[in-house]
Write a structure and sequence with these properties.
By secondary structure, the chain is α/β, with parallel strands linked by helices. The chain is about 50% helix and about 10% strand. It has 22 helices and 10 strands. Strand 5 and strand 6 form a beta hairpin.
């Protein structure tokens, strides 16, 4: 026990504990100070530090090295949380630890937001520190002997684990609103709370999906494949357009004619409006999962923050499996590696027969950093020209307008058509916005191309179009104020009702939908009103939208 109470142990332990409190204060937004939190949250923080200190002591054998190592890891989490809060309006939660591995596999999507210079500096400093401590700080095993060192380290780990358990038992329930929970619990306690809640939660059951009765068997027109009436089944294309929204109401400096195909489609659409999406700036799969499965994010509980982690191991009904049960060929197109977000496991479980990923595209298909939207539109057009006798359902996940936008430089000629009154060189707050607007124009061209392909097909065609979230434009948002978090959606048919086109825009109905309702309404439109299932909801009530 004298070793446990020695200054060799106590000094670094207390310094590290104080450092963990000070580093937590670097979070932005900053959580409540520890004296305003409950005893349970502070007990969890103390237990976490003792547990980590004991574990790294056991591994590194050097107490000051363990302190610096743990605090460095905490600083990485703090910096990651601040970056996430600044760009996505959400702090770091335990689910985000897996993204560190994704950052290694897909550094372009993550490291630039953290800061390439900062990442290089931190890595270099870490390498120097590791070498220095290994050389200059003596090992405790040599000072104390193996038995005493092992007993003291295990004692710290045991005390830390006990305090974590006691603190967690008395911790108030989390709200599943990360900003609120971080503020009242602090970093360590909120990470534990979300992690334990995730482990204790259960995945949604198939019955929670409105597509469950439709995906089990051919509930619609059971023998339609043998009938001539099958030829009337429409081809259906559903496009999740990366970071798509209409920025013109948000920023008056943007050219009014930026999105001609979008404007025309809104005028012709059988239904359109704002989509309430469960994501801001990123976390695409939250919106994607809601649209495909028809399951509201709240139903997922703690699993809602990355539902594809669950879907990679559990099969749930989806709009794809519902179309497949009605005799459709089901295809997903995503011009990025299929392994990202485990889509290579998830997409087949959702009922897609074919998954077309980046391997089907060529390097010349790139426009900017990623495969261009018009290249994706050409791929969809070829699918619609296929000689397969079955009707086709295609779900498209685009990539062109994915950030980080600051890795591209705006071009003066393009800026003249998107921000006609902007000065050149562009001020800082317009640089990323100018890049975004150029790619948004390419998305608009894709919309026109897909509509043309549907019009050229033998079958009637139905198009669903929506944005997964608003883009990451922190400088522009600071200058102009952030836009609404919703994105536009449209359902358009080749059998356009010309009476709709003749109505003035302010007289056409506009419907607010939750993301999990969009797929249901698209499926309903594909089969008209003759759907023998009470899970397909009635038409929503019109709502005024700003």
């Amino acid at each position: 026990m004298e070793f446990f109470l020695s200054s060799t142990f106590i000094s670094p332990l207390l310094v590290g504990l104080l450092g963990s409190v000070l580093f937590e204060a670097l979070l932005s937004p900053r959580p409540q100070p520890f004296w305003k939190r409950g005893i349970a949250a502070n007990t969890l923080h103390l237990g976490s530090w003792l547990l980590l200190f004991g574990a790294f002591m056991l591994l590194l054998q050097r107490p000051w090295f363990a302190v610096v190592f743990i605090l460095s890891l905490q600083l990485v989490v703090v910096q990651s949380s601040n970056t996430k809060s600044r760009t996505l309006n959400e702090p770091f939660i335990c689910h985000d630890f897996e993204y560190f591995w994704d950052a290694i596999l897909h550094p372009r999507l993550y490291v630039p937001f953290f800061g390439i210079g900062l990442a290089i500096a931190a890595s270099s400093a870490g390498a120097v520190a590791i070498g220095s401590f290994l050389v200059f700080e003596p090992s405790l095993i040599r000072q104390w002997g193996g038995t005493a060192f092992l007993v003291n380290s295990l004692m710290l780990i045991a005390i830390g684990a006990l305090l974590v358990w006691l603190g967690w038992r008395k911790l108030p329930p989390i709200t599943l609103t990360p900003n609120i929970d971080l503020d009242r619990l602090g970093l360590f306690s909120s990470l534990w709370a979300y992690g334990i809640a995730l482990m204790r939660s259960q995945p949604p059951t198939p019955e929670t999906s409105p597509f469950q009765p439709l995906a089990q068997h051919r509930s619609l027109d059971q023998h339609s494949l043998e009938l001539d009436a099958d030829a009337a089944k429409p081809n259906v294309v559903l496009v999740q357009s990366e970071s798509f929204f209409d920025p013109r109401p948000w920023c008056s400096e943007i050219a009014a004619d930026l999105l001609p195909n979008y404007d025309a489609t809104c005028q012709e659409a059988v239904v359109q409006g704002a989509l309430n999406v469960p994501a801001w700036g990123a976390n695409t799969v939250r919106t994607e999962c809601a649209v495909l499965t028809g399951i509201a994010p709240d139903t997922w509980g703690p699993r809602q923050f990355n539902p594809y982690r669950t879907l990679s191991r559990h099969t749930l009904p989806s709009i794809a499996s519902a179309f497949k049960a009605q005799g459709y060929r089901t295809v997903c197109v995503h011009p990025y590696p299929a392994t990202f977000y485990m889509r290579d496991s998830v997409i087949p479980k959702l009922g897609f027969e074919t998954f077309i990923d980046i391997r089907a595209f060529e390097s010349q298909d790139k426009h900017g950093q990623y495969i261009g939207d018009q290249a994706v539109a050409r791929r969809v057009g070829r699918l619609l020209e296929d000689n397969d006798n079955r009707p086709l359902f295609v779900f498209v996940i685009t990539m062109e307008n994915h950030g980080p936008l600051h890795l591209e430089a705006p071009e003066k000629a393009r800026v003249a058509s998107t921000l006609p009154a902007a000065p050149w060189p562009l001020p800082h707050h317009l640089r990323d916005l100018a890049v975004y607007l150029h790619h948004l124009g390419e998305s608009d061209k894709m919309l026109g191309s897909v509509k043309a392909a549907l019009n050229s097909a033998i079958r009637p065609g139905l198009l669903g179009w929506y944005g997964d979230h608003v883009p990451i434009l922190p400088a522009a948002y600071r200058h102009y104020s952030p836009p609404a978090s919703s994105t536009p959606y449209m359902i358009w048919s080749t059998e356009v009702d010309r009476n709709l086109c003749d109505q003035p825009p302010n007289e056409r109905a506009s419907y607010m939908l939750e993301a999990n309702e969009l797929g249901v309404h698209l499926f309903k439109r594909a089969f008209g009103r003759d759907i023998s299932s009470d899970v397909i909801k009635a038409e929503p009530e019109p709502q005024e939208q700003e």
